[in-house]
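#help-structures

NK: newbie question. if I give both the sequence and a SMILES, will the prediction place the ligand too? trying with copper (II) ion
OV: yes, paste both and it writes out the complex. here, I ran yours:
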Amino acid sequence: MKKALIFAIVAVLSLGILTACGGGGGNTVKLQVIAGENGEMKYNPETLTAKKGDKIELTLVNKDSAQPHTFIIEKFNGKTKQVQPGQQETITFTANAAGDIEFLCDVPGHKDGGMVGKLTVTQ
Ligand SMILES: [Cu+2]
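OV: that's the protein plus ligand as structure tokens.
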């Protein structure tokens, strides 16, 4: 009786571990993007990757000396506030669709200046 109970507990725990580690997305992924490094109007990196279903914890680090920047990924409803020089902000969103998803800085003129990138979400 006791043995059966222990077996059941081990089985349930194993299932939980398999679910947490299984492939195909659904994991929590930490990503970091730097904005305005060396005074450049761009993100570094400009390309990010994730799997469909991943929960993304994205940190925008503003290394610009003068200007605020944002990270907006409209498709997944992920938006930072205006992050001031030397500051950072972490946002969370779920990559719930596959494709090349655009992100950008919505401070006026910045997207046209080069602050745009893509998050490639695979199935
Ligand atoms: Cu910007």
